[in-house]
Amino acid sequence: MKLRGGAVFAVLVLLLFVGGLYMCTEWSVKARLFPMLIVIAGIGLSALVVRAEIRRGRPAEKEEKPKQDDPMAALKLEKQEATPRSELIMISWMGAFLGTILIFGYWVGILIFTPFFMSLFGHENWKMVAIFTAGIWLLIYFVFSVSMRVPLFGGFLGLAW
Amino acid sequence: MVEAMLSGLQQTLTWEVMTLVFIATFIGNFFGAVPGLGGNIGLALLIPFVFGMKPFLGLAFLLAMHSVVHTGGSIPGILFAIPGTGPTVATIVDGYPMTKQGKAGEAMGAQLAASGLGGIIGAAVLAGLIPVLRPIAMAFSSAEIFMLIVFGLTFVVVVSRESVPKGFTAAMLGLLFGTVGLNPHTGVGRFTFGQLWLWDGIHIVTLVLGIFAFAEMIDLGARGRGARIAESDVTMPWSQLWEGTKAVFREWWLSLRTAVIGTFIGIIPGLGGDAATWICYGHAVQTCKNNENFGKGDIRGVIGVETANNSKEGGALLPTIVFGIPGSSGMAILLGAFLILGIVPGPRMITDHLDLVWGMVWVMVIANIIGAVTLYPISGYMGKLAFLRGSLLIPPILVLATVGAYLIRGHWQDVALSLCFGFVGYGMKKWHYPRAPMILGFILGPLAEDYLHKSLGVWGLAFLKRPVVTVLLTMAVLSLCYSLWHAYRETRRRRKETQ
Asked: What is the pTM of this model?
């Protein structure tokens, strides 16, 4: 039987609570009283959700297309566009963004990620890419570095000024 | 009382505060008008900007921004049937048909005037309730506050219409994340995995940025590279804007009623904006004569919803500042921001810092006036925000969100953790786990634990026998049972409909 994504997510949540319960047992009674109440309730509730998700099974067919005169139609159509592949791509982009920031820091990371994302993911023209990259960099520079004088993360390479 | 009121006004009418309020209303309208952003993300992104500000300046900035989010949020709703924020969904029911009938300007005029008026009435009701709450607040000890928090947590059911177990699971996750860090009562490091940066716990901004900002950006990007919000253009003559504005004052009795109802719904923690707007819409349909045009483009539908939309923020601020129990998810984030600014919400706000509370009331009034007035000339352009492509919106939001996550404590680990919460938030959004209970649990958890230990330390388990505690406990149990029964009935009805 193939599991739905919802069931997998619910199982992960359940495992999180079970892990929490295991860790609670190592603390003193006063320290574990409150977390233990939470994880026990969490285990019960997430088990209920897992059961409900498994019983629901896989969706039989896609939802009916909304009527065009329905005021919510546009919203419903937007919601249907995400696919597992597009989700994976977007999550990878997020991971890439985090990696860029962690390695190169904000100042260089913004200059790397923004043009790559806009041209490879968004297929934007180079003028738009240049304007947006410069705009975001300058916004961050003037707001945080010039006016607020807060140092931003320079990455593991230490590229900060 | 009058002294505090005047002192609050004096604090507000300084050029520093007024400039910040002015800027904040623009930002609030922007975040409201861009679908997928909304007030919660706006607040989370703006919190880093208030570091180092004087407490009242930071508070005025964030509160002004939050007060007007729904004013801008209704614009794409009326023009393109795309709600900028959750509670503005009800505006679409009559606003969008009006646009299709060529009356977009009239709907927009009514929406702006009703939002401004609703916000002012909400703040006035909040001001009127302050003297009543003062003796109540003073009578609350740690035991009563603990039970009030428990009572507040039972409202999780109300915001979990789709699935009560999922709502409670989300709340438990929030409570669990709230326990991370050194326990102040024992000094034991809980769920820290030997990591020094986790000793102070998870920061509210890290969590909120993750489950709202990052999750929404994943969702927007996953819908395709050029995911646009709207594809059609709309024109808006000035005469229509004026007609819509006049309609709000012509229907003054409806405006007043829905604003007051909205405020009182806002007071109930966890009930939130969606409930306020739909209840007020239902009230308008039930009480207005010649109601056959509701749902087909009746301006009274727009007025009823919009007055409630902004007035409920005044109500939601009340439990937030007086009891430290956020009246909505936005207020939960605001509560976190208050703590960052060194303002500790609770009964002492009414007894020791009344001028600050009055300052908040004035900020809400002024922000609502500025928010509505400034939108008149630019409302047509604001509507064009709905055309922004995801590929243009995602990079600046990601950069601002990660900067926000980093700046709260200067740990790069917070950025990574926030992104992890983004994946959790996206999973919650995709599989219909309500996210507001998670915030509610995260905020209320540490408070509940603290007051529980204090109560146990002073009275032992006998704290449960205190009269107000008993009443609150009974109310919590009744509220929970009623909500569960209501949810069960709703589920059965839905199941029957699908069969």
From this structure: 0.71
3-state secondary structure B3-64: HHHHHHHHHHCCHHHHHHHHHHHHHHHHHHHCCCCHHHHHHHHHHHHHCCCCHHHHHHHHHH
The residues near B487 (Cβ < 8 Å, ≥ 6 apart) are B157, B160, B161, B164
Among B442, B373, B357, B358, smallest CA distance to B44 is for B442
What token pair was written down for B189?
């490091």
Read off the amino acid at residue B486: H
Token pair recorded at residue A106: 């904000």
β-sheet bridge partners, residue B181: B190
Q: How far does the CA of residue A35 sit from the closest CA of chain B (Å)?
A: 7
Buried b (16+ CB within 10 A) or exposed e, A21-33: beebeebeeebbb
Cβ pair B78, B108 in contact under 8 A: yes
Contacts of A23 in chain B (CB under 8 A): 190-191
Above 70 in pLDDT, residue B83? no
At residue B271 the predicted structure's pLDDT band, cuts being 50, 70 and 90, is: low
Q: Nearest-CA distance from B187 to chain A in Å?
A: 8
Q: Is B285:B148 a contact under the CB 8 Å cutoff?
A: no
B363/A contact by beta carbon, under 8 A: no
pLDDT number for residue A93 = 92
| Angle, helices B390-407/B412-430, rounded to nearest 10 degrees | 130
* Number of helices followed by number of strands (H, E) in chain B: 22, 2
Per the rule left: phi > 0, alpha: psi between -120 and 50, beta: everything else, B233 is beta
**Taking a C-beta distance cutoff of 8 angstroms, is the pair B100, B285 a contact?**
no
Contact of B197 with B411, CB cutoff 8 Å: yes
Please name the residue of chain A whose CA is at the shortest distance from the CA of residue B192: A23
- Decide: A66 and A72 in contact? Cβ < 8 Å: yes
Nearest to A118 among B97, B391, B448 (CB): B391
- pLDDT digits over B169-193, tens only? 998 999 999 999 988 888 888 998 8
Residue B42: name the closest of B13, B67, B77 by CA. B67
Chain A residues within 8 A of B394 when measuring between CB atoms? 117
The residues that bridge with B182 in the sheet, in sequence order, are B189
Tokens encoding A139: 């916004």
Nearest to A38 among B172, B399, B422 (CB): B172
Quote the CA–CA distance of B404 and B401 in Å, as a whole number: 5
**Using an 8 Å Cβ cutoff, are B313 and B364 in contact?**
yes
What's chain B's average pLDDT?
80
Phi/psi at B182 (5° precision)? -75, 130
Identify residue B355 by its one-letter amino acid code: D
Contact B219 A124 (CB under 8 A): no
